[in-house]
Structure formats: structure tokens, C-alpha cells
Design brief:
Structural class: mainly alpha
Number of strands: 0
Helix content: over 70%
Number of domains: 1
Number of helices: 5
Oligomer: single chain
Distance between the termini: 24 Å
């Protein structure tokens, strides 16, 4: 969810700011990198609570932690893109971003319809 949400947010941001974004401005590659990184950041932040305190019994606390995980990961993505867009993107950087983006899109769509056998994708109530 974070991947496609961040990608859509970047598209909206582009259409809102396209007049302010000059030609040759490094807009897309930093945002695409953030789009790739944000879902992994959500996972890292999300699993801090189970790693440190175990299972969360309160649905309210779990919802608050989910909101915090998503929000803080979006902030991380924003900080990354702000710092990267100040530099010119090299050809190798662009190629790496496009490869990672393609792999991410492919895997996220594939996993939606055919989840892999990984604990992360298993409903614990079924076990």
C-alpha cells in the first residue's frame, strides 16, 4: 500500500507543482527512490514494537502504531528526496532506480494475486 500511495502522491505533487518545476530539475528520480524505500521503512518501523515488546493486544494501540509507521516513513521519504534532488542524477543512478522500480511494481502486483510463502504474508489466525 505504501508503494502505490507514495507513487500517487508524487504524481499529484508533480501536477500541482509542474509550473514551479523547471526543465532539467531533478524531480522524478528522488521521488521514485523514495517510492521504493518507503515500504521498506514502514516494515522496519512497524516491526520495532513486536521486536521490543511482543504482540500488541490493544487494537487502538496497533492502529496508532500503524499510523505512526506510515507517517514517519513518509517523512523519511520526503527527507531523502529533498536531499537527493539537490544533486544531478547520473545515468547509472537513473538505471538503478528504474530497475528497482520495475522489480518493485512487478513484485507488489504479483504478491497481490499470489502471495509468496513468507510469514509476512500469512494470516496468523489461519495457522
Amino acid at each position: 500500500m505504501a508503494f502505490f500511495a507514495y507513487l500517487m502522491t508524487s504524481l499529484i505533487e508533480y501536477f500541482e507543482m509542474r509550473r514551479k518545476i523547471g526543465k532539467g530539475k531533478n524531480f522524478w528520480y528522488p521521488r521514485l527512490l523514495s517510492t521504493i524505500i518507503v515500504p521498506w521503512s514502514v516494515i522496519l518501523v512497524w516491526y520495532l514494537v513486536p521486536a521490543l515488546w511482543g504482540k500488541v493486544e490493544s487494537p487502538a494501540l496497533e492502529i496508532l502504531w500503524a499510523i505512526f509507521s506510515a507517517y514517519s516513513s513518509g517523512v523519511v521519504g520526503g527527507i531523502i528526496e529533498t536531499n537527493i534532488e539537490k544533486n544531478a542524477a547520473t545515468s547509472s543512478f537513473k538505471i538503478i532506480i528504474m530497475i528497482l522500480l520495475s522489480v518493485s511494481v512487478s513484485l507488489y502486483i504479483w504478491f497481490t494475486y499470489k502471495p509468496p510463502w513468507i510469514d509476512l504474508f500469512i494470516n496468523p489466525e489461519v495457522l
